[in-house]
Specification:
Layout lengths: L10 H10 L20 E2 L18 E3 L2 E3 L3 E2 L5 E3 L24 E7 L2 E2 L6 E8 L7 H14 L8 E12 L8 E10 L4 E12 L12 E5 L5 E3 L7 H4 L6 E2 L4 E2 L1 E5 L8 H11 L17 H5 L5 E3 L9 E7 L3 E7 L5 E7 L6 H12 L4 H10 L12 E6 L3 E3 L5 E3 L5 E8 L3 E11 L6 E12 L5 E8 L3 E6 L2 E2 L12 E4 L2 E6 L3 E8 L2 E8 L35 H9 L25 H4 L5 H5 L6 H10 L2 H21 L11 E5 L4 E4 L7 E5 L6 E3 L4 E4 L11 E5 L4 E5 L2 E5 L7 E8 L5 E6 L5 E2 L5 E2 L13 E2 L3 E2 L7 E2 L4 E2 L3 E10 L5 H13 L6 E10 L11 E10 L6 H18 L23 E5 L3 H5 L11 E5 L3 E5 L12 E5 L2 E5 L2 E2 L2 E4 L5 E4 L1 H35 L4 H4 L4
Parallel strand pairs: 34-41, 41-43
Antiparallel strand pairs: 1-8, 2-3, 4-5, 5-6, 6-12, 7-9, 8-9, 9-10, 10-11, 11-16, 12-13, 14-15, 17-18, 18-19, 19-20, 21-22, 21-33, 22-23, 24-25, 25-26, 26-27, 27-28, 28-29, 30-31, 31-32, 32-33, 35-38, 36-39, 37-38, 39-40, 42-43, 44-45, 46-47, 48-49, 50-52, 50-53, 51-52, 54-55, 56-57, 58-59, ...
Length: about 1050
Amino acid sequence: MKGTRWRRVPWVSLSCLCLCLLPRVVPGASLLPYGAGAGDLEFVRRTVDFTSPLFRPATGFPLGSSLRDSLYFTDNGQIIFPESDYQIFSYPNPLPTGFTGWDPVALVAPFWDDADFSTGQGTIFYQEYETLYGERSLPVLQAESWIRKITNNGGFKARWTLKVTWVNAYAYPAQWTLGSNTYQAILSTDGSRSYALFLYQSGGMQWDVAQRSGNLVLMGFSSGDGYFENSPLMSQPVWEKYRPDRFLNSSSGLRGLQFYRLHREERPNYRLECLQWLKSQPQWPSWGWNQVSCPCSWQQGRWDLRFQPISIGLLGLGSRQLCSFTSWRGGVCCSYGPWGEFREGWHVQRPWQFAPELEPQNWCCLWNDKPYLCALYQQRRPRVGCATYRPPRPAWMFGDPHITTLDGVNYTFNGLGDFLLVGAQDGNSSFLLQGRTAQTGSAQATNFIAFAAQYRSGSLGPVTVQWLLEPHDGIHVLLDNQTVTFEPGHGDGGLLSRNGSVVSASFDGWAAVSVIALSDILHASASLPPEYQNRTGLLGVWNNNPEDDFRMPNGSTVPPGSSEETLFHYGMTWQINGTGLLGKRNDQLPSNFTPVFYSQLQNSSWAEDVISSCNGDSSCIYDTLALRNASIGLHTRAISKTYKQVNATLNQYPPSINGGHVVEAYKGQTTLIQYTSNAEDATFTLRDNWTDFKLFENGTLLWTPKSLEPFTLEILARSAKIGLASALQPRTVVCHCNAESQCLYNQTSRVGNSSLEMAGCKCDGGTFGRYCERSKDACEEPCFPSVRCIPGKGCEACPPHLTGDGRHCAEPPLRVIQLLLSEEENASMAEVNASVAYILGTLDMRAFLRNSQVNRIDSPAPASGSPIQHWMVISEFQYRPWGPVIDFLNNQLLAAVVEAFFYQVPRRREESRNHVVFQPISREDVWDVTALNVSTLKAYFKCNGYKGYDLVYSPQSGFTCVSPCSRGYCDHGGQCQHLPSGPRCSCVSFSIYTAWGEHCEHLSMKLDVFFGIFFGSLGGLLLLGVGVFVVLRFWNCSRTSFSYLLHSAEASP
């Protein structure tokens, strides 16, 4: 070699020297702690592509304008939100155009490019943080801090967060790509807003840009419904795209951080509202929820004085409500339809505070699409029905006092004074009802002029209400000695109410009293709960036994049917001695007042003419005759008739509806459900008509689902005889899966704000999609750019300069060498590059690809002063699977390069100069940088033909695809045929044997041949036996003829 020899300087050291001279990089954002030490879980599969398990945020995840139910991450730097649990793909190839808003898949892409974990390098860590109820976690707090700072919103509170960290991820194919990436994605939502943070480890994004042929990384997100954002780096040169750790976020002032708002608009999250409410409630109600129920019709409830009509604006139009409140067991409100049919009931813990109860019901049951949340709500707030409703037991006091006891006994009592009507108590409360009578004008009769009731319970002090008769049928009402003034449409908070001239009091939703004034007489009714049974007063002993109603305070009983005089004396025993609830009287009572009795009045000469209008009503007749006033008698008759109608209505129930509460149907198929009723004259109708439903008057329901239009099915049964109706709102579950066997009727989602639920689908047989309506095809995941996909078959071959399976393509593995060259022509870097490329391109095996580096190396000037320049060149050659290329590059390349630079022929061309003459080199000037052996290369080449072909290597032919059929795949002479599914043996028979098995490896004897040989041998043995027998028989006969006895011969003469 001419000139001064120069010392070799390793190119790696020079590269490091160059990097050290670069400007100092601003520190980037640090990744959140990850790995096992941070509590993360590891998930990696040693395959080219894989996906994680599904994550299912309880609140859902807002993305674009949708609330997504599930998501998963892939090895390729994506977090994907699938349309269904069976639509799980890894999508290794980024969209060439970036996100456009028309993207078919909803995903978040921190670094979407084809990664490869199959070689055992790299891993993925993840951790899910659920902070629904204010739990604290340091990574979540850090994410919240970044989000608040960037959005300038200090109120963000994460309820669900996912952290995924890709650690040392290599590009496909990992076997020969250089550099790995480490980065992190954080998804966080408060239920209404959602954000993504991408964090890239400073200096940790090291993929070789030169090796990313065709694939270009994509960062950003697409919601799948038109909302998207591409990373600002997508508009930058390719080398900047692959170094996101150097990107400066202007909002945070940090490098290596990208931030995205994932929700299009902020919406309330009713799943979250429901879950938080459920958390605040005991799993089972601690109050007496099972002790309350609703009247079964509006008509029945209106006469149950424990219930009061109210108006709740939160409920729909056309509904009416009745509510009852009890301090110690909570309250209940009941909703009724236009026909008075009971629709639903719910619990209310505090009087007149409906929103705190109705809102959770709406959150959990009406405004979200997850029926399981409604089931959890109903566990905390069990449904209130009417099946256990029992009307109160009424008693009446009207006219010149006519009394109907709690056991239904009628009698007249014209006592004068203050009397105890009811004195009752149970374990929770006590109740007193007293009445005051006065003489009716100058007649020998009395009527009520005042009532007073007092209620006590463990949670309420004594509450006293007084009704005082005023002139012109007025009623003066006192509550705890304070006058009550009724405003139109208002009561006093639930205790007192006024409906026309009737003033009612409901004591803690337990006992009730209603008073009306007519003809300057107070008439009253009282309703008591069953817990007050077996208590006494003028209203009798309530025990469902009329025989002992006239029991006196001393315990003795007046038998029923006793004379009026006897009953008068019985009633006087309940006179209050001293001061009662009504206080002292202002008038002086005569000491020996005796009323006129009915038997005395019947003998009046003018009675027939006056009482004809009473139509035989005894109370009307008595009052008319005693007071000599037909008008009062008619009022008494009207009051009596009203009370009887009330009693009848309270004990009258609407027709029942018996049948399925859940109706399940498959699309296009008719389901029949039969509903029946306990009322013979009940007719069935639908509240709203739907084209998919048909209900006959006899209760036969036909459902043929044709669409998923939301609807609420409500069945009505009405009795024309009593004019009452019932309603049933069954759950309707439709399955739209591709096959009926795929239906999951126990996994449903609600369709809109309706009673329709859609069954989930369990896809099988290679199907996927929301309804399993799509068959999995190799073309579902896009092929490598510019590679066509053939439906049913898959991706075609990679482009000519790339290798892979058509979906994953990369430059073939490279053979890399380092050359140390010198020349005396003062050539430029471009001239050196062109000349070396020309020389290496003329090698016998045309495998040269490019020079990846050409660097001039400074060295001390030679003593002779000749202008020698020294160059370091990194040259890359492409392995190809066919021919002797592999053998040449691995075993002959270095010697061929030395020879090529030894025999240089000067060349001149008009184009760029490529005729630099280099000094001859030796083997010491050529170094191996990268060389791959045959076993390593075998992993990068695949047979794209029929399944089962094997790669076989030979130095001259390279890799060839060989069928096992050519290498003795079938034994015992079996014929081998290579089909698309793989090699298959056709076994043949020979001699007395038949071959069988996958490789014809087993032998079995033919049965016909076996039995032929067997019976042939048996026949041969039989013939042989017969022959032997004949021979022996003949031989024995000959011996007898020619033999003789020796002692006989000797005895003859």
